[in-house]
Amino acid sequence: MSGGATGGAADGGAGVDGAVKPGALARLKERGFFQQCTDEDRLREKLDSEPITFYVGIDPTGTSLHVGHLVPIYAMAHLAEFGHRPIVVMGGGTARIGDPSGKIEMRKMISVEEINANAERMGVQIDHFLGRRASSFTMVNNAEWLAELNYIDFLREIGRHFSVNRMLSFETYKMRLETGLSFIEFNYQLLQSYDFLKLYQTRGCSLQIGGDDQWGNIVAGADLIRRIEGSQAESFGLTFPLVTRADGKKMGKTEKGAVFLDPAMVTPYDFFQYWRNVPDDNVRTFLLMYTFLNLDEIEPLLSDINGAKERLALEITTLIHGEEEANKALEAARSLFAGGGAAAEAVPSGALPTVELDAGILAVDLFVRAGLSASKGEARRLIQQGGARINDRKVESIDGVVDSGWAEGDPPVLLLKAGKKRYYRFDLQDG
């Protein structure tokens, strides 16, 4: 796979002569994209003096990017703004093994066909986002050089440079040894290191960036380059903190699962609401990491924390789903808050046959059908706790039946509310 962004460079980026703007590393630090670096002083010197090529790897193990994937992509956009050259490595080869980093058990193996289809979908999403922030970038698939490797030759030429003792000293492998580490996963670090070497040799790539759970793999890649290319070869690794929420939840996770970028998996309204409802203590961090607002724009926002959350949600929803969908989500959220929810078009919705409602539907079944409860048991608990409402009418009993008398509006709808902030609208239809 290959691809390139369209459009001009972001303001303040490299000029036509290929010069760079100093301060790239300072930008990463001030926005929260810095945890560890292999040689900070030398990397700063390189970034401030010449354009360098750098890369991020993303394994297409799912059908869509989620908000966790966005952190390295935002970091790429900032480096590109300073004149540096991004490469996105889609892991069509490494995904066939699965990265053990940050996992307590082996990833589910998926077919090559699924991996390739996922790579295509994710590639479109990356191009949509990064293409508007970088004047150009490259996208490659590491299956191009990994899929046809001769294993014996690979072990002789690459594997001999790796110390098992050192590999086991990295936190990823130490953690997995407690729960079980398969031999296929043990090979992952070799393959990721080989990616870095291959990009160094063929594209002049000298920097790999990623989350801090990738530190061991990144350091191993830089070390492999030195061993193969000689001590004069310069390569760097930089990681940023793993983003967590102040309420203890894993970043990008909700009761219903991951916060995906695909609108068919997470509606723009639900995406907006996720950011609108983040814990107060995360708002400044997320404005820095998940928007491109300047610091002098961010600080004044924090005097009104609810207004800051709304701005955060609007900014990132616009970046992912476009201005029209973001504004619809904003209007829907405000409408619901003001009590005008039945008319909010951006709320997740579905059709409900009028004849079915006329016959009566258990409220428990309706909340499960809307996706506001994962099971009937969860729906019953929601009702018992007083958190289930339909058109602002409280559902009193777990055995309660909803019929056409609950519908309101013109045209009539059922607006379901679970807790304080989750909504779903059923539009009634004939038939």
In words, what does this structure look like?
The chain has 431 residues and is an alpha/beta fold. The strands form four sheets. A six-stranded mixed β-sheet has the order 1-6-5-2-3-4, with helices on both faces. It has a five-stranded mixed β-sheet with strand order 9-15-14-11-12. It has three domains: 24-240, 3-Layer(aba) Sandwich (Rossmann fold); 253-340, Tyrosyl-Transfer RNA Synthetase (Orthogonal Bundle), CATH 1.10.240; 349-429, RNA-binding S4 domain (Structural Genomics Hypothetical 15.5 Kd Protein In mrcA-pckA Intergenic Region, Chain A), CATH 3.10.290.10. It starts with 23 loop residues before the first helix and ends with a strand. The protein contains 19 helices and 15 strands.
Write the layout of secondary structure elements.
Blueprint: H1 24-31, E1 36-37, H2 40-49, E2 53-58, H3 67-81, E3 85-90, H4 112-130, E4 138-141, H5 143-146, H6 151-157, H7 164-169, H8 171-179, H9 183-186, H10 188-203, E5 205-211, H11 215-229, E6 236-240, E7 253-254, E8 257-258, H12 268-276, H13 283-290, H14 295-301, H15 305-321, H16 323-337, E9 349-353, H17 354-359, E10 361-362, H18 363-369, H19 376-384, E11 388-390, E12 393-394, E13 401-402, E14 413-418, E15 422-429
